[in-house]
Specification:
There is one protein chain. By secondary structure, the protein is of the alpha/beta class. 28% of the residues lie in helices and 16% in strands. Strand 1 (2-6), helix 1 and strand 2 form a beta-alpha-beta unit. The longest helix is centred in the middle third of the chain and has 8 residues, at 53-60. The chain starts with a strand and ends with a helix.
Length: 93
């Protein structure tokens, strides 16, 4: 399975904390959504705002998938604004 964490148009609701970082890297208590996604089996790709793409690639070594990479794959699409609670990991599994 391929996991794709994406930011939607409502990521602006998390400003100013998401101005310089992807929504999946916002810390809630002691967790980031990215921590939970890395535990799940499968390949992890992300889709973030254009101006953050290179930064998050250098920081997390994650990038947006190409159309060829997702063609015919089972996908789990995860909104980057999802709150990383313990219950969230259970639901994702």
């Amino acid at each position: 399975m391929q996991l794709i964490c994406f930011e939607d148009r409502f990521v602006k609701q998390l400003l100013p904390i998401t101005y310089a970082r992807p929504a999946y890297s916002v810390t809630w208590a002691s967790y980031q959504l990215l921590d939970w996604l890395r535990v799940l089996p499968g390949r992890l790709d992300v889709s973030v705002r254009n101006y953050l793409a290179e930064i998050q690639f250098l920081d997390q070594e994650l990038s947006a998938p190409t159309e060829d990479e997702i063609k015919g794959q089972e996908l789990l699409l995860v909104n980057a604004r999802l709150v990383p609670r313990v219950e969230t990991l259970s639901h994702l599994k």
